[in-house]
Amino acid sequence: MLRLRPRSLLFLGLTVLLGFALLPAHQSRSLAGDVPDIPGTPAVELEPQVLVDWIQLLYDRAETEKISAPAASRLYAYAGIAGYEAVRPGIADAFSMGGQLNAMPEMPYPDPELEYDWIASANGAMSTLITGLLPDSPDTLKAVEALRERYIKARAGKVEADVLERSTAFGDSIGAAMLEWVAMDNFAETRDMAYEIPTGDPSLWVLTAPGMKPVEPYWGQIRPFALYYADGCAVPMKLAFSTDPDSTFYKQALEVKDVGDKLTPEQKDTARYWVDTPGETGTPAGHWMLIAAQLADQLDLKLDMTSMMFGLVGTAVGDAFISTWSLKYQINLIRPESYIQEYIDPDWRPLIASPGFPEYPSGHSVVSGAAAEVLTGMFGTEAFTDRSGRKHGFRERAFTSFRAAAYEAAISRMYGGIHFREAIEGGLEQGRCIGRNVMDYVTLRSKPQGE
To answer: Which of 106, 119, 186, 333 has CB atoms 3.0–4.6 Å from 360's, for a disulfide?
Structure first.
C-alpha cells in the first residue's frame, strides 16, 4: 500500500515548521502507479551500466573538483533521484518520488502510446542534471558530454532513431525538472553567509591547522530530502564536557589517545581506507554510492532495481549530511586532538588530520549508518566485497553485511584520532534513523522495495 507522509515545505535555519501539503489532483496518476504500460523493453530486462557509469563520473568529478563532503552528498542525492525518475516509467507499478520528497514537484511523464528506451532516458537525465549542477568547470562539461555521446552512439545500434531521440529528450526533461527543484533548496542562499566561530568556552571547537576555514557552517539550512526537517533524526550528545580526569569525557579522550598510540597495521589500514578525504577521493557519500554501484554487478541487478537503489541511497546520504552538519554546528564540540593536547599530552598527534568542522556527531558514522540501513532494507543481510578503493591503492575489503561495513567506517574515525566514542555511537544511531526514515516513508513500489 502506498504510504505518503506530509512534508514540511518551509524551513529556515534551525526553525522547525511542520506543515501538511496535499497532493495535487493532477499528480495522483504518477504517484499511484496506475499508468498504462509504455511500449519498449521494460527496465527489468535492461542492464544497469548506464547509471553505474554516471555515478562513477560524478564521483570522479567530485574528487577532481575538490568538492566538500556535504556539497558532494547533495550531488549524489539529486543524481540518484534523477536516474530513478528517468527509468521509472519503464518499471511496473512504480511510484514517483515527486510528492514524497520535500517540495519535489511532479516529474514529466512520457507519451504512453510511444516507445521509449530507458537506457537513453537515463543517459539524458543524468547528463542534463550534472551539467546544471556543475556548470562552471570546462573539464567536467567535457566529461559529461563525452559520456552522453558514448551512450547515444551505443544505443543507436540497438534502438530506432526516433526512439533514441525521443527517449533522450524525455531524460533531458527529467534533468531540467530536477534542476528547477534543485534551485529552491537554499544552497545558493548559503554561499555568501558569513560565519564567526564561537569562543569563550573550553568545550567549543577550535581550528586545528593554520589557514583552516570552517566547512559549510550553514549546511544544516539546506532543504532535506526525506526528513521532515534537518534535526528530525538528531541524537543529542549525552556526554557532558569535563576536564576532570575522573569524568567520562576525559576517559573517552584518553581512549582516543591510547588507541592511537597502539594502532595495529590493520587499524591503520582501516582508518586510511575510510578517510575519504575531499579532493583526494569522491568523499564519504561517494564511497557508499560506489558500494551501491558494485552491488549492481554482485547481486546481478537490472536497470529497474539499480535505479531504485541509487534513488534511495542517494536520498539517505543527502539527508545524512544535512542532519549531521546541522547538529555539528549547534553543539560545536572540540576535537579530540585539541582536547588531548590541552589536557593530557601537548605533543600528541592523530593518525589522520582533524577536518575543519566541529566534532559531534561523526559524519562518517551518520552517512554510513544511513546508507547501510537502506541497503539492508532493500537486500537484507548480504555479504559483499568493496573494490572501490583500488583506484587509490587500497586492497579490496570483504564484509559480512552492510551494517558491518558501516561499523568499520564509524570506528575507523577513532583509529584516525578524529572522534570520541560518543560521536561514533551517536552518529550510527542518527544514521540508522535517517535510513529507516527513507525506507519507511519513500515508497517506490507497492511490494517490498528490494524484491
So the answer is: 333
